[in-house]
Design a protein that fits this description.
By secondary structure, this protein is mostly beta strands. It contains no helices and eleven strands. The strands form two sheets. Strands 2, 4, 5, 6, 9, 10 and 11 form a seven-stranded mixed beta sheet that branches. Strands 1-3-8-7 form a four-stranded antiparallel beta sheet, with no helix packed on it.
């Protein structure tokens, strides 16, 4: 059973930075997509960034150039470096792993990011 635990959220002023971490435990298939999603109050969950098992990254247009997704395979950890944060980035951020061969979806519990002065 795959478990994902996010950390690193908090309150930050506009223009500030945060780094989210997602520690993965359990056995993950070799072909996967890992990603960060977010959900603001009253809105649907949306994709922020993904990275494939081959290292290909994608970003939502709203965060491109400000956020960077990365993974450390040795630590089984996924990261999201968030710079130049805006109030619109306020949301609960979720870590996700999708195993393509098995069509299995795994989610973390989420971490709150609040951007406010």
């Amino acid at each position: 059973q795959v478990q994902l635990v996010e950390s690193g959220g908090g309150l930050v002023q506009p223009g500030g930075s945060l780094r989210l971490s997602c520690a993965a435990s359990g056995s993950i298939d070799s072909i996967y997509v890992m990603g960060w999603y977010r959900q603001a109050p009253g809105k649907q969950r949306e994709l922020v960034a993904t990275i494939t098992s081959g290292g290909i990254t994608t970003y939502a247009a709203s965060v491109k150039g400000r956020f960077t997704i990365a993974r450390d395979n040795a630590k089984n950890t996924l990261y999201l470096q968030m710079n130049s944060l805006k109030p619109d980035d306020t949301a609960v951020y979720y870590c996700n792993v999708y195993e393509l061969n098995w069509s299995r979806d795994h989610w973390g519990q989420g971490t709150q990011v609040t951007v406010s002065s």
